[in-house]
Amino acid sequence: MADSNTEAAQLSESQQDALATYLSVTNQESSEALPLLRRSQWNVQIAIAKFFDGEAPDPVEEARAAQEAAPPPPTRQSGHREVLLDGGLEFPRSSRRSPRDPAPRIVPQPDDRGVHKTPLLITLLFTPVSLVYKLFSTSLSFIGYLFPFLPRLLSNRNQSRATRRNTTGRRPLNPRDTAARFIREFGEEYGDHRLPFYENGYANAYDLAKKELKYLLVVLLSPEHDDTSTFIREVLLSSQFESLVKNPNVILWAGTVQDSEAYQVSIGLNCSKFPFAGLIVHTPQDSSTAMSTVARVTGLQPASSFVSKIRTAMSQHETALETARASRQEQQATRNLRQEQESAYERSLAQDRERMRIRREAEAARAREEAEAQAQADAAEKAAQNKEQWKRWKVQSILAEPGAEIKNATRLSIRMPSGDRVIRKFAPEATMEDLYAFVECHDVLDMDGATSQNEPPKGYRHEYKFNLVSPMPRAVYDLASGGTVAERIGRSGNLIVESTVDEDDDEE
Predict the structure, then answer these.
(1) What's the rounded Cα separation, in Å, for the pair 491 and 473?
(2) Other C-beta atoms within 10 Å of 185: how many?
(3) Would the pTM of this model clear 0.70, i.e. be above it?
(4) Mean pLDDT for the chain overall
(5) Alpha helices of 170-302 — where are they, by DSSP H?
(6) 23: burial class by Cβ within 10 Å (0-12, 13-18, 19+)?
């Protein structure tokens, strides 16, 4: 893994882009993807096609390898060595064909072609011809009416030609429906069976075998062949073949060459004799994406011989396939572990982000509360300063206490909020405003050397937050009713200062 990362780091920018695109499509490891991209000249489309369709041998590389492996030209001395002990001659070995042929991934092409609309210009040019043809056909129909035997002769001839043109009469279907039709017709003709035919197209079976590292057994039949029925009854429906294909690592795909897909598969697998069976499997010794045909069984053979050849081919490639499965499982386990680690990291990162968000929100809320408290404290301090300045200004306008010579003065006993009782006389012309101002500014009057203010604070409007109340009988002497002290209270009275502000509001 470290070597592949080192190689990927040494690539150019375009090669790294090609590697990233290839890995996102194929989900393959970098160690396996780099050799395939190099063989494909860093062409992503060619590399992806080789991964899914199987990598065919490169003729240039084969020619180069054959040239390098070619034996030196024979000398005269080597010619004497060709004589065997028994007097025979040793012929030079001919290059044998590799037992593994690349198995192509075949996607069936539709037989029917789309209907093309005739261009308007050609339609206009052939309009006179079509009119003449209609007139001619109308005249022929009139002649057929006069001579009834002519249409019957022409119709029989046309029907025979049509019969010769359409030999099969099979409607082309998509791969899944074609497989379902084959399985249905197979059951109708040969009865109930327990063969696990793959109910989809060859390309899907090919991809499944490549993905899950299974064996793909392809059986191609030709209904026109004389041995087809015997092959099916003696080989395909035998217990030996049934036990073979019930292996969970075997995918059985079959088709008849009357269908377009099976016919194209027979051409792709170089099938020249029917019945045909081919075993396709992933061959990691060729390349990381190679799918090869490792066994071919053609013609009618006994069931034991047929199954023996397939099992022999499977046993020869089972070790390499098990190694590939183990490697793929290890890669998958590594990938799953990496995904779990990434998922755990993402969850941890999300939790850290949530904690940071909660912390930031708490700090922001605390900062807002502190700012609001500071603003309230500043406002309260400012209000207290304005009130104190107003008292020092207001105390200058309070009338002095009248002397003993004033007989009609009002004598009041006032209980302050602090609990102290103050006794004072007020002149007959003193108003309720003077009385309330006296109570409000009493603490300033008691202060010796208190500085006075020439003007009230700007923008400040003072509000008296108390009422003067007579306890018995209870009477409230509010400021809003106005009047003088003598008119409202009389010559004397006992008053209590009651606050009009609740204690909670006062604390705030």
Answers:
(1) 16
(2) 13
(3) no
(4) 81
(5) 175-190, 202-212, 228-231, 239-245, 260-268
(6) middle
Cα–Cα distances (Å) from 346 to 331, 350, 353, in that order, read: 22, 6, 10
Cis geometry, peptide bond prior to residue 275 (ω within 30 degrees of 0): yes
With residue 493 as reference, give the H or E element that holds it: strand 492-499
pLDDT digits (tens, 9 = 90+) for 390-433: 888 888 888 888 888 888 888 888 888 888 888 888 888 888 88
What's the CA gap between 438 and 396, in Å, rounded? 11
- Asked if residues 70 and 77 have their Cβ atoms less than 8 Å apart, the reply is no
Beta bridge partners of 414: 422, 495
Q: How far apart are CA 105 and CA 236, in angstroms?
A: 24
Secondary structure of 280-327 in HEC code, one letter for each residue: EEECCCCCCCCEEEEEEEECCCCHHHHHHHHHHHHHHHHHHHHHHHHH
**pLDDT tens digits, one per residue of 451-463:** 666 788 888 888 8
pLDDT at 276: 96
**Which among 218, 187, 222 has a CA at the least distance from the CA of 203?**
218
What confidence tens digit (pLDDT) does each residue in 15-70 have? 888 888 888 777 787 788 888 888 888 888 888 877 776 665 555 455 555 555 44
Q: Tell which residue, 167, 192, 197, has the closest CA to residue 181.
A: 197
441-447 long-range contacts, CB within 8 A, separation 24+: 441/391, 441/394, 441/395, 441/398, 442/416, 443/391, 444/391, 444/392, 444/395, 445/395, 445/398
Q: Which two tokens stand for residue 231?
A: 């092959």
